[in-house]
């Protein structure tokens, strides 16, 4: 592992053990980047408390015990007891050299690969599909990609809403308009519009509403004709999902579909087991779990209803069946649920109930990766635009069209087809990156101009950085300049860039462990900035010293690799040129 923080941590921990005793061997040396040196060790203050001594004395003891000879210059004590560390340039260069030979680019290899179930995207068949689903798709996909790069086994689960009472009205509507009609086509292009039409008829009451209600019952009793139309409905919707996924470059396939309906055959037994184990009991005719620690108004225990008084099962029952399946059959070590913030209480209750039932053992971590809202310019949830329903595909097409004007201006010389491809990468990348660079539980405003800007923490800025390095590479090749095997690290800008590069592995690991793609975005943004400073200070092709030129080219190309790999973990494509 080339990361300096890790190397320094090891050295400091041996020093703690030597200076203060073996029980200090795993004290955190608190290594942080510093504006006064490359890093600072901030451990003295905490250790001083533990040892009941003065921080500066502790710092002196650490200094006497620590061996950083090959890594850094002798540290200096500053302020109350900070240790300022300046790494040896030669050490950084050697680490960068190792990094450029590492196919994983410094990503850690796990001691034991984990099986991680990532539940994400999960739109609803012919129900209001909103821009929130775009976000659960984009964030979940990046989490899945990141964990795979970290050597884990990822099982994607697309828990689509393909069951429940709305299907009565949807089936009746489909029957009425005809399965081959233009209205049915809407399921493939704008399911929301299909849903709204069915809903309007249902709300008008009368005969349609009565038929819709009857249809729910016949469907749930397993009636062949109802199931056939239901299958058709789901099939049409899947085509729509896949169009969105293709457009987005999401890694979800049909094999990852595990919709609510898949758990149907298990719901009865789930309820039976919960009741038999005394986890659930009948309350007001409904079978409920009262998970420990959840109270509603008047401090009354809050029920998680697993079987309604009419015998029907709901969202919670399905999720309990899903947890059990994921742990027992899929062998999950961790489960991440990438779902809107609004469902926080649901998941907390489901997780607690599943733990009480013994279906989610303590050692299996379950996390609700809360997804914030996408807002319109008016600060309200982006749902409709000028009253009409917001089509997700139209939104993405608009992003690509806007990116097209950017690239047309930037590179009118490129052939039409190539500009179209680049516009796609920039437009889609821009939208995805805006999602990913915001903390997943924060809201953000959908603002195409900002998403597609060539400056700031945006996809186009990073894509442009990659394109620039690739252009240098092409010119170098044309001039017969070959990159050195190891990057050259000498001046300050080169040091700073190399240090950034060494941070890729740890950052990826952090982003994967905490399910926080925005950390990776922030990292890539500073990396691209460090590259810009480097390129300003250290000319490559214009450099007359051959060794220097080749060494800098190697540093630039290592930067390209890391940027491309990082963008790939986000699911953002980097065009060859821009
Ligand atoms: N279909 C749900 C929705 O649109 C999300 C499902 C999330 N996953 C889960 N296991 N409940 O809100």
Task: Give the arrangement of secondary structure elements.
Layout: H1 4-20, E1 31-33, E2 39-41, H2 43-51, H3 55-65, E3 76-78, E4 82-85, H4 89-101, E5 115-119, H5 131-149, E6 153-157, H6 166-177, H7 182-189, H8 191-203, H9 206-220, H10 224-248, H11 267-276, E7 280-283, E8 286-289, E9 304-307, H12 315-328, E10 334-340, H13 344-356, E11 365-371, E12 374-375, E13 384-385, E14 388-389, H14 392-410, H15 416-437, E15 444-445, H16 448-451, H17 459-478, H18 492-502, H19 504-514, H20 517-537, H21 546-570
Parallel strand pairs: 5-6, 5-10, 10-11, 12-15
Antiparallel strand pairs: 1-2, 2-4, 3-4, 7-8, 8-9, 13-14
The structure holds arginine (ARG).
Arginine (ARG) is lined by residues 119, 122, 124, 159, 161, 319, 322, 337, 339.
Report on the architecture of this protein.
54% of the residues lie in helices and 10% in strands. The protein has 578 residues and is an alpha/beta fold. Among the domains are: 4-87, Arginyl tRNA synthetase N-terminal domain (Gyrase A, domain 2, 2-Layer Sandwich); 396-570, Isoleucyl-tRNA Synthetase, Domain 1 (Orthogonal Bundle), CATH 1.10.730. It has a four-stranded antiparallel β-sheet, covered by helices on one side. The two termini are 34 Å apart. The mean pLDDT is 94.
Tell me the strand order in the biggest sheet.
1-2-4-3
In the CATH hierarchy, the third-tier topology of the domain at 396-570 is known as: Isoleucyl-tRNA Synthetase, Domain 1
**Backbone CA Rg:** 28 Å
The CATH C-level name of the domain at 396-570 is Mainly Alpha
Assembly category: single chain
- Largest sheet at a glance? 4 strands, antiparallel
Report the strand count: 15
Strand content: 5-15%
Through-space gap between termini: 34 Å
Decide which structural class fits the backbone: alpha/beta
């Amino acid at each position: 592992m080339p990361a300096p923080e890790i190397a320094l941590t090891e050295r400091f921990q041996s020093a703690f053990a030597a200076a203060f005793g073996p029980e200090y061997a795993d004290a955190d040396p608190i290594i942080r980047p510093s504006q006064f040196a490359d890093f600072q060790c901030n451990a003295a203050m905490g250790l001083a408390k533990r040892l009941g001594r003065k921080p500066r004395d502790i710092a002196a003891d650490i200094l006497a015990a620590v061996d950083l000879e090959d890594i850094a210059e002798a540290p200096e004590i500053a302020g109350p007891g900070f240790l300022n560390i300046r790494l040896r340039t030669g050490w950084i260069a050697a680490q960068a050299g190792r990094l450029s030979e590492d196919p994983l680019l410094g990503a850690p290899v796990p001691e034991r690969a984990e099986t991680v179930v990532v539940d994400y995207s999960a739109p609803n068949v012919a129900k209001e599909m909103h821009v929130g689903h775009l976000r659960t798709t984009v964030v979940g996909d990046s989490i899945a990609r990141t964990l795979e790069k970290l050597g884990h086994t990822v099982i994607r689960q697309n828990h689509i809403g393909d069951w429940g009472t709305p299907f009565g009205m949807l089936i009746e509507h489909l029957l009425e308009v005809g399965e081959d009609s233009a209205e049915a086509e809407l399921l493939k292009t704008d399911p929301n519009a299909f849903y709204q039409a069915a809903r309007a008829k249902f709300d008008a009451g009368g005969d349609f509403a009565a038929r819709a209600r009857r249809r729910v019952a016949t469907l749930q009793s397993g009636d062949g004709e109802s199931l056939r139309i239901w299958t058709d409905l789901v099939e049409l919707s899947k085509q729509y999902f896949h169009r969105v996924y293709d457009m987005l470059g999401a890694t979800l396939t049909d094999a990852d579909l595990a919709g609510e309906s898949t758990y149907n055959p298990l719901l009865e037994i789930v309820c039976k087991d919960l009741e038999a184990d005394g986890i659930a009991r009948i309350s007001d005719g409904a079978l409920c779990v009262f998970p420990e620690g959840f109270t509603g108004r008047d401090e009354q225990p809050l029920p998680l209803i697993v079987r309604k008084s009419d015998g029907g099962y709901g969202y919670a029952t399905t999720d309990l069946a899903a947890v059990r399946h994921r742990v027992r059959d899929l062998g999950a070590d961790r489960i991440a649920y990438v779902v809107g913030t609004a469902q926080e209480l649901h998941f907390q209750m489901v997780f607690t109930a599943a733990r009480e039932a013994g279906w989610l053992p303590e050692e299996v971590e379950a996390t609700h990766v809360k997804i914030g809202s996408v807002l319109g310019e008016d600060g309200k949830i982006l749902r409709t635009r000028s009253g009409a329903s917001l089509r997700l595909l139209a939104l993405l097409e608009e992003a690509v069209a806007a990116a097209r004007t950017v690239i047309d201006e930037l590179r009118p010389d490129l052939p039409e087809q190539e500009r179209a491809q680049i516009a796609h990468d920039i437009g889609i990348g821009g939208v995805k990156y805006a999602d990913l660079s915001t903390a997943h539980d924060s809201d953000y405003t959908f603002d195409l101009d900002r998403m597609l800007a060539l400056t700031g923490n945006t996809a186009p800025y990073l894509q442009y950085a990659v394109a620039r390095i690739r252009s240098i590479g092409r010119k170098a090749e044309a001039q017969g300049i070959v990159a050195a095997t190891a990057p050259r690290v000498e001046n300050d800008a080169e040091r700073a860039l190399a240090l950034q590069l060494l941070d890729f592995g740890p950052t990826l690991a952090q982003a994967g462990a905490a399910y926080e793609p925005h950390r990776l975005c922030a990292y890539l943004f500073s990396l691209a900035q460090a590259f810009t400073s480097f390129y300003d200070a250290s000319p490559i092709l214009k450099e007359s010293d051959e060794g220097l030129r080749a060494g800098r080219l190697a540093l630039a190309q290592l930067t390209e690799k890391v940027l491309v790999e990082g963008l790939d973990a986000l699911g953002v494509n980097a065009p060859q040129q821009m």
